[in-house]
């Protein structure tokens, strides 16, 4: 076989053999330098208001279309007000709030034309009146050390993610945070909390999957006290509110906490999934009775949400609403603002 060499006695390299062009000796011509490609501009981060508007788009779109259909150019009559009330009840705002809005819209306006935008403004104002008294921040009492926050809710409501986001906020405020992986039924929940803990520099107290949650609560409180933690946030297993044996276990967790600190837990946060609508009402009632819920967090305001239910819950239970969540990122949990929520659900601009 002939020796594959060039005139200098050297074999062309692999690059030359593959890419040599028109040179019998196999020498490669230099390739043209690639054109510089400018890096793609990152998409600008949407504002909190934009994310909230998008999260409540299902409710606001339904309400907006309904109002536009009801309040045509004809003069206001009782049939139009009946249609408005039905629309608001179907949007989960609750009978009490729907009736108030109906009465406000009708006051002094019979036999007059009313524009849809005016109805939306009345809607936003009335919703804000309901929500303003419950829009309260979560207060951490520094005299309680550790301040114990127990987080409860049904399966899939977003408890563990909410704990991670909340703990990140507390850590950013300079508080020493510890986490307790009390969802001992799911290995994934324990791992998820450990990831959040490593991300924000917070120790995580955990036990093997299947361990007793009440025993973990007892140990976590002791360890948090010995470590001088400012805040201990404890996850719990997701449980349906109609499963009596699981709710009994949650009662046991609360009882055991009180053996370490008679005032604990100092806050019990119920995480509500905004997509479940009316089912959230029974969750608030039953978790409130079993665990002594002190405040609410509404999650999954992601465009499929039925956000009107928060208005009905506020009207009936008067519980503080501390936070709402619109996504999975660390900064997608924000303190609840009544005016923003009311205007977003009514479909008004900021």
What does the average pLDDT come to? Answer: 87
The helix-strand sequence is HHHHHHEHEHEHEHEHEHEEH
Annotation, overall tally of beta strands: 8
The whole-angstrom Rg is 29 Å
Describe it.
By secondary structure, the chain is of the alpha/beta class. The protein has 13 helices and 8 strands. An 8-stranded mixed beta sheet has the order 3-2-4-1-5-6-7-8, sandwiched between helices. Helix 7 (159-172) runs parallel beside helix 8 (187-200) and helix 11 runs parallel beside helix 12 (309-317).
Summarize the structure.
This protein is of the alpha/beta class and 350 residues long. Helices cover 46% and strands 10% of the residues.
Tags for this model:
alpha/beta; elongated; 350 residues
Helices and strands in order, then pairings?
Blueprint: H1 14-19, H2 48-55, H3 57-70, H4 78-90, H5 95-106, H6 116-131, E1 147-152, H7 159-172, E2 177-180, H8 187-200, E3 204-205, H9 213-227, E4 231-234, H10 244-260, E5 267-273, H11 279-291, E6 295-299, H12 309-317, E7 321-325, E8 333-335, H13 338-346
Parallel strand pairs: 1-4, 1-5, 2-3, 2-4, 5-6, 6-7
Antiparallel strand pairs: 7-8
Helix pairs in contact: 3-4, 4-5, 5-6, 6-13, 7-8, 9-10, 11-12
